[in-house]
Amino acid sequence: MWSCSIAGIIGCLIYIPIYYVLIHYLPEECRQSKIFYGILAGMVILFFMTTPLWCYSWPSFLAAAGFSISASVIIATDWSCCWIPDEPIILLLIIDGFMLAGQYIIIDSMVCTVSLFFYVGLYLLFPKGIGSGDIKLAAALCLGCPGQSAYIMTAAAFFSAAAGAFIYQRFHRTSKIPFGPYLLLGWWCAAVIGGECIEWLLFI
Q1: Could you point out which of 97, 120, 145, 187 has its C-alpha 20 to 30 Å from the C-alpha of 104?
Q2: Residue 133's pLDDT is what?
Q3: Largest Cα span, the chain
Q4: Cα-based angle 34, 189, 76 (whole degrees, multiple of 5)
């Protein structure tokens, strides 16, 4: 494990390319203000700096930085125009393959398979409730969940999305919200507290 202070300094530097990508490479129909992108990039960096990946080693730090860039683009596009582009998902899959090959994370293949079938089933049953981009994102994130924590990711994503939809409905009179940001929040919960939650559930 290397110094978290060094990781913090480099994390601040990662903010610059994330902000640049958001400003220059998003489609016109998904554009928001520069202030929005600045706040978004900062929040994503802060969230990912709390994950074990950020301070474990240089390879895992690079993986976390890649996750941060992908997450920023996904949140920006899904929140603005309910669309998740393929490029950040492909980057997530490349990072997953790198982490799995180097055994930086070890997944439970059965849990990942069950979780993926769950999302596909939701898409087939409620095609207007969840999009194909959400399915692809869920698959990429499940492959990045260590152990059995894909369950935690799914539960956290749906609970937070339900809360978000309730709050959003109070102000906008509609409960339709982008699901991608909540999937990413679920992955963050799985990375930070997933192991402890699984142990607690098995204990009770």
Answers
A1: 120
A2: 93
A3: 51
A4: 20
